[in-house]
Amino acid sequence: MVNFTFPGNATVKVLPENVFKNCQSLESFTLPIYIAEIGDEAFKDCRSLKNIQFASPSGLTKVGLNVFENCSSMTEIVLPSSMNTIGYNTFKNCSSLRFVTLPDNSSLKPMRYSTFEGCRALEWIDVLGYGSTFEDTDYKYNVESFKADVRKNEEDTFYFIGEDSGCAIHAVTAAHEIAFQYRVSKNFEKIVHDQTDDKIRYTYLVSPDGKLLDIDIAGGTPETVIIEAKIGPYPITSIGSEFSDDGRGNQDLKSVTIPNTITVIGDNAFKGCNNLREVIFLEPNNIQTIGLDAFKTQEGAGATVTELTFYGDIDLESIPFQYAMQWDSNYNNANQDRSYIDFCSGDGTNIHVRYNPGKIEGSNPDYSHGKREVWKVPTIDVAKIASTASNKDNDDYYKSLKKAMLESGYAEADVDSNMETLVKEYDENGEITSSKPSEDVMRILRTAFNIELPPGIQSIRSELFSEATKENTEKTTIDAGNNSITVPAVNDAATGNFKANTSVRNIIMDDVEELEPYTFYGCKNLESVTMYSSEKEDGENIGDYAFGHCPELTGVYLPGSTAGIGKRPFASVPKLTGIGFVGETAASGGNPAQNRGDNYLSEYGIIYKLENGTKDSIVQCLEARGAFENGIGSSDIEAKELAGINSIAEEAFMNCDNLELIDLTDSNVTNIPEFCFSDSDHLWNVSLPPTCTRVDDFAFKDTLLRRLRVPNMYTIFTNFAFYDSDEAGNVKHDVEVRTMKGSTAEERAKIYSKYGWRVSDAYINMICVTVFQDENGNVIAERRVEEGEAVEEPTEEEWVAYFEKYPEFKDMIFTRWSPANYTPASKEENYVTAIFSDEVTYYHVRFVNDNLSVLMEEDVMSGKRTPIPQTPTSAQNPGASFRGWLSDPQGQSPYDPITCDVTFMASYNSGGGSQSGNDPNNPNNPNNPNDPNNPNNPNNLNNPGNNGGNNNNNNNNNNNSNKEKYTLTVVNGSGSGTYEEGTTVVIAANSANTGYEFYNWTSSESDTNFASKTMAATSFTMPKKNLTVTANYRVKSETGNSITSKRTPGTITSSPASNTGSVNKPNTSSNSSNTGGNSGSSVQVSRPGISDTNVASATVNGSTDNFVVKVTEDGQATMAVAEALRNEYGSLENVHYFAMDISLYDATGTKKITDTNGLSVTVTLPLPDELRQYGGNNKVGAVTGGNNLEKLNARFTTVNGVPCVTFTATHFSPYTIYVDTANLSEGAYDITPKTGDAIHPKWFLAIGLAMFSAVLFLKKDKKTNPGIA
Fold this sequence. Notes:
Blueprint: E1 3-5, E2 14-15, E3 28-31, E4 37-38, E5 51-54, E6 62-63, E7 76-78, E8 85-86, E9 99-102, E10 111-112, E11 124-127, E12 134-135, H1 143-150, E13 159-162, H2 168-176, E14 179-182, E15 188-193, E16 201-206, E17 211-218, E18 224-226, E19 230-231, E20 234-235, E21 238-239, E22 255-258, E23 264-265, E24 278-281, E25 289-290, E26 309-311, H3 319-324, E27 342-344, E28 352-356, E29 371-376, H4 382-386, H5 396-407, H6 415-429, H7 439-447, E30 450-452, E31 459-460, H8 470-473, E32 475-478, E33 484-487, E34 506-510, E35 514-515, E36 528-532, E37 541-542, E38 555-559, E39 564-565, E40 580-582, E41 600-603, E42 606-611, E43 614-621, E44 636-637, E45 647-648, E46 661-663, E47 671-672, E48 685-687, E49 694-695, E50 707-710, E51 716-717, E52 736-739, H9 744-751, E53 758-759, E54 767-773, E55 779-786, H10 796-805, E56 813-818, E57 829-837, E58 842-848, E59 854-861, E60 881-888, E61 902-909, E62 965-971, E63 973-974, E64 977-980, E65 984-989, E66 996-1003, E67 1017-1021, E68 1027-1035, E69 1044-1045, E70 1082-1085, ...
Parallel strand pairs: 1-3, 2-4, 3-5, 4-6, 6-8, 7-9, 9-11, 10-12, 11-13, 13-14, 17-21, 18-22, 21-23, 22-24, 23-25, 24-26, 26-27, 29-31, 30-34, 34-36, 35-37, 36-38, 37-39, 38-40, 43-45, 44-46, 46-48, 47-49, 48-50, 49-51, 50-52, 52-53, 54-57, 58-61, 62-68, 70-72
Antiparallel strand pairs: 14-15, 15-16, 16-17, 19-20, 27-28, 28-29, 32-33, 41-42, 42-43, 54-55, 56-57, 58-59, 60-61, 62-64, 63-65, 65-67, 66-68, 68-69, 71-74, 72-73, 73-79, 74-78, 75-76, 75-79, 77-78
Helix pairs in contact: 5-7
């Protein structure tokens, strides 16, 4: 039955109980005029019933109990005006019922709310009867139960419709905070009780389009108003001038909350609300318009200003934030000083930002050039938390943390004590382990320790983080001459008379344009600072001492666009080893920090100002430079490190206690400024450049200066240049000066002779300047040395910098220097030009023995020198001594640059007696009687017949047990102890920290004979002295611009000396091969000490898959190799080795292959740099079980001119390339004769020439002046 209609002749007046109950198919029902009453549950459970039609006029007067219960398809019903009684639960659980119209009948009895129990879709009830109402007498289902049923998505969208404020239903809505709509005007009204004082009521009147027409406050004077988001189903979208009262303003209002529905705040909205202190925006980004003078709160106020704060998300796109940061958005009247809105981020982060117009002067001030400035950040004050002071409730951080703690279940009486415990524990440990606070509590707790300034903040208020100034951080002392001296602070900042933020650990800034002097000075717990780039066109600036006295600071990242860095920004920051530069903003995710910015470079612990991409001036040497623990770089700053520097900032090297030597010889510095090296306690050796003309006061104050080199005749030294607060006369004592004869420095040394000063007997010769340049005159490098000293070529770092600056030469081939005879230095100024070429010629060079067997062959770039094989032994006359090399064609010496294809044949003397190395063409002929290595030299203590002039052949009392022992100190490694002279000592470096790798070994004695400086585990022979050796590390870098130190040394890229440019040289070596061409597998060499890794290749045998073979450095592998070699040779004294780990990865290079059964790899690697000189004497071995050495078959070849070794790794474990220097054989490279080498007809001539030269030799030997033909 879908529809039911009574027959026309029916006369039923009462519809019986349950008459249609559970009629599941009934959809529509028409009630005739003669039905006066519907019995209980008449339509109960008619779940398909949608429509009830009443006759008009209707005779229905009563509806019984539960009549329409569970009629879940019914959506609307209009009850006839004839009705006077509606039973309980009539529409119970009509879950789809949305609209109800009650009869206009003054006799209608009061209804219970349970009539509509479970009607969760109900949107409105239109009460036509002026007197009709509801009674709240059902204890099981009351008005609050009803409100809960009709609430949708936690919002009160339901409303009653009535005639006016006098009707009975209006009183119901007013009493129970239910929305009311006026039937005629369609305006909505809602009366809301104050949350803290129930007597206070807010009456909201809103138009259907969401405009707040009026808000009336009765029953009291509330200080806080939370504006309703919706009145019934309609959101409040705009605010007019309801609070303003025509500019007179609500004088009681102190706080107002703007809901997320508001989009428009009209003109004068809160004008004249003199005591309004805070406006809380629940969703500031929803605001689209703020009208004129909307927050002119001080209009009509007296001289006292009530500060105004906005709360909401700090966002440059937010209209409230934009409004607060406008120069003309001050809220004062004409009689008050100009004030700007304080915008607070709230939500526990509590970052306060204000517009700062800057310094205002003149009668017509301009306020429009100010900046958005962070005014306040959350801070920890444990004493304040523990106190009973009521003013702590005004602290945003305290209030936020307290609120979060209360919401997470802390008892209010215990909040302060628990907060104090949490803060102290987090302050000490950086985490909370004693309890489990909620995530919200932890989030707010962290904000005082880790501060992140959101984008849009351009500056930081002076003294926000530190109240330090020049006046309260520097001290005044009195020197011996009663001269007042102002000395920069050196000691712990705690001695200063100022306060600083001691809670902040990390801070991130985005858009900040400048850090003023002393910004973070004395923030003793600050660990890292990240400053992203701003919109400032000319770059960011860092003020003097900005990070001074931050003893825990280890990470500083500045914008790559930083344009200015002031005086000694990292004063007394002992743990900082370098600074990074970032290029993008935090909002875009940032990018990895580099050690080079647009204008600055941080390298080996020194910060440089750049000019056109090259080092121009020294800003500051960080105090960690040269430190043994957690330091960076060497304690000696050599000349080449500072080459080309033009100036040094004041205090640049101040308080660098780990520095011992600074050499400025190759710089262009003209002035050593005040306090330049002051208080560097261990600095004892300084070399000034020839350009230096002045040394200012206190430059060497309180240093350990003992040796000073001054290569300028007329350098001026001011009166206090060598001031020392601890020495008699306040002058440094015991200084040796090396200078030019008759110079001002010599004169000053004589004046100070009473303090132990003296002039070195070795006067400085003429200073020769050598400029290496390209054909256009662009400088590659400069060298300044004394006349007669060697001139070093440009370093790889200098080539890299040059090619970055002049990339047009990068792909060309460097061939030679012109002139070639630039060293030793002989001219006061000498310009040496690099000759580049687009094309390059390679010449084939062969070295053969006297039986024509090939000793070595190599393709050599035109103009380059060839490697020389080790001294050969005659194949035809083993007793003959080596005489030299004969060339074909003649005129090409093996020791000069190669200019043609050439073959060199070994030539021997016919007599016996070895004269190994006695090559007349060799400029390094060792058979020089003055050579200390010559056994015929009477001064050679290694000669068994010599003992330094006091030889006693009977003195053979070498009892080892009586030998004196000497102390070895190993820094960053193991092996420290006491050892006898001559003992072979094995040392090993500690494992590198994450992000770093082992670099090399250095020693306190330059003559330490390491078996290998680049192996993490190595050995040397203990000298007859105490010794300190140091393991150095470097940052693993993707860019090649790394920071080098004793903990984190860096790497360099290849120089033009090994650059073949774009020319792909053919490999003409007869036994060279590249095994990687057909396997699809690749080799990744990250092990330091191997150049030209691009020629490495591999073939994986036993599988058709592609792999990645990784050759890496590993501390355990290095130790295993050292042990295996020691087991094989008994000692590492004569073994030079290169350890490496060879591992197999899948084709992606990310997954290591652990099951390698049946697999082997044939790998071709360039010979390690330190072992190339030994060529074919190198060997290859693998470490097997028990640290045994498995010797492998190795084949030596050249690939693209690079000497390489090929071997097969049958298992994946530590491997080594090594050489036993005690058993070297002839031939530096592949000494195997090449098959198919025909005897060239020219050799018949060559052999004849050799025999002829021997005859000439015997003939000339009889003359007065013996020589070699």
